[in-house]
Amino acid sequence: MNQEVLEKNLTVVEEDICIRENLVYERPSTLIDIEMHYCPGCGHSTVHKILMEVVQELGIQNDTIGVAPVGCSVFAYHYLDVDMQQAAHGRACAVATGIKRVLPDKYVFTYQGDGDLAAIGTGETIHAANRGENILVIFINNGIYGMTSGQMAPTTIPGMVTTTSPYGRDVEVQGHPLKIGELLALLPGVCYITRQAVNSAANVRKCKKAIKNAFEYQKRKLGFSMVEIVSNCPSNWKMAPVESNKYVENTMIPYYPLGDIKVPEVK
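Given the sequence above, the corresponding structure tokens read:
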């Protein structure tokens, strides 16, 4: 190889290194290359990205099956390039249970909102967890019913305004919010419960690590895992995206503190 060709090849390599070092965003190959419909600033798109980054990095695309029920999560199958199954409202854990029992070597996850998982699907969620079904639940907690106009959800925090609590949630009238993570952590079939957020770059990285941990625990057949993600809903909160992320930081997270709630006792 002559000197001119060698120098040209080195230049190409150097340029590629510079491009990779300065790369800020890249779509994972496991995420379908189409425009997302989610409202500007919504956390769903970020969660989709890091979830599919984990699938790509673990090399499990062909062995992964997702279940998306009704709500904003219903559109996940438009964007996640893995096998997907839609479930009736609240029934994702039941559907995922059936899939995992028939195909035990597959990685099975559900993608659910708080109205779906913590209200309509409370029974399915608790019993799947108690049985120790070896599945992963991705639980988006934005304290509201997102798709159906912003009604109060089981996770709506005290004083939070919604279309059905226009003066703020009053615990004397509507009861206390459900802290699903802490509730499920008490069950013996549960392996891993963690609460994360995607309102900042640092929290996004921690959330991605939690999702990867959950898939690893599923591979080791350790039982039920849930990654709860405290997120925003700019449209129904009637806030700009930046304002909604500040609300997550200053109001939601103090009520739903982030971090591991239950971790497996791995020998």
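The two ends are 54 Å apart (CA to CA). Try to locate this feature in the token string yourself.
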